[in-house]
Heterokaryon incompatibility protein-domain-containing protein
Amino acid sequence: LQSETSSSTTLDLAFHWYQSCNTSHRLCNRMRSQKKSWMPSRLLDISSESENQWKLVVVSADNITPAPYFTLSYRWGSNQSLMLRRSTLCDFRRGQQISRLPQTFQDAVVIARRFSVRYLWIDALCIMQDCREDWEREIPAMQHIYSNSVCNLAASASENPNGGLFRTRDTTAIVPGVVAAPSAASTDKNHHIFDDSYWNRQISNGPLHRRGWVFQERLLSSRVLYFGKSQIFWECFTELKCEGFPQGILEHHSVKNLNPLWDLQESGQQEGQESDKMPIHLLRLWNNLVRDYSNCALTRADDKLPAFVGIANLFGEVTGDVYLAGMWRSSLLEQLNWWVDQPRCRISTTYRAPSWSWASLDGPIRPHHQAARTQFLVSITAVTTDHSSHDLAGTVSLHLRGSLTINTQLEQPLQAILYPDSLEIKLDASRPFYFLPLQTASYELLSDAASDHGDLDFHMEVSCLLLEAVLCAVPPIYRRVGHCVIDDEDDISMLGLCVVEDRLASVMSNSDIILI
């Protein structure tokens, strides 16, 4: 190992990983093989006659033939000055000095040329930053921009574009320690000593990967070459490597596991052709992605859905399902059952998603994983969508039928685990709100008293949405303000529900409501 990550030794190793994946990993080539001829609308051409220049090409106008290109993931920082604007378009088309680029962009040019890749896609230079119409055309294409890139370069250790990709490092801190087996041992194998948290410290928890936009860039790219603060890392759909473990990182698994999607895609069938519901393994994958994404930060709160649209488009293409404000039409009831994971969640001050969607909140959320035995206590009678503004932020309303109980009419306080959607919401007697029982989860538990006989105790919990009235209309209109879980039978009965064997029956009449 050399003391610089820009050394020939390091870059040769990276190129070896890239070539090996490109030639032998069927899974990693699967996404690109779907649209090999697809190209972004604009690219940076970095192989001009003058090695000191780059220029912006418009793929359709310049008749650019399909060719490999790299993408770049980086943090914008607060002083991103070099951008594609209406005023800079002509200058970029004529050509610019590479030395005027931020250091991270310059280093990306070095890597691309080293790998004999002529084109580079960087969002700040390929999307018109002062043109809303151009932004709305380009953002839905993120799925294809990253999935068709031959490799994504990630500036994992830099806080802004001036931080660069390369680092000086202490090589002794990278090489894993080796402990030789004692001469009297039963095995002669050596043992490696390594820090099993270094991947999370340098990559997953690093400055770059806290950024919301990077979540889908990492997931959609077949290959990612990370430039950390002490070494480079490689992640593809098949392998996870670094300089310390160039043959594969021990005890680590890539988060880029989209196998349920690939399996469905390879079968050539859309799930809607066989079932009305998204299969449980796909829904679990989606929920896990939503949970992880909700922990990321966005500079602009209204980017919540656009920064996830590439992943949504991929799911939609493979499943044939209908996407509604962060959820899927075939499994809306299941996906309504989520709660905030930390009290720091905030409700968006401007509309970007309906209150029943996780996308309406800024902060971590946790979707409910379906129990083996469950019962839905509401039904969806209609879904209305208004896309008059933009298809990423169209307003969606749910027409539901279920039983409502207002908190101010309860005989006594409920014993429930309450999850207000924000700390700004006070769920107490001073504020009227409604319980809408949504779903049950049933479990069979082996009690201490019955363990000698192998008997099972029956346990049930009920998840409820907490709503507040918005408009007295017919049907009335409500907004979600929280979530709660109730597991005491007496408390469950206070909501007009009674246990009949292992199911719940309502003793109250159901109401039609609209949830916005």
Remarks:
- Residues 389-393 have pLDDT under 50 and may be disordered.
- Residues 13 and 243 are 8 Å apart (CA to CA).
- The longest strand covers residues 457-471.
- The chain has two domains: 8-254, 331-515.
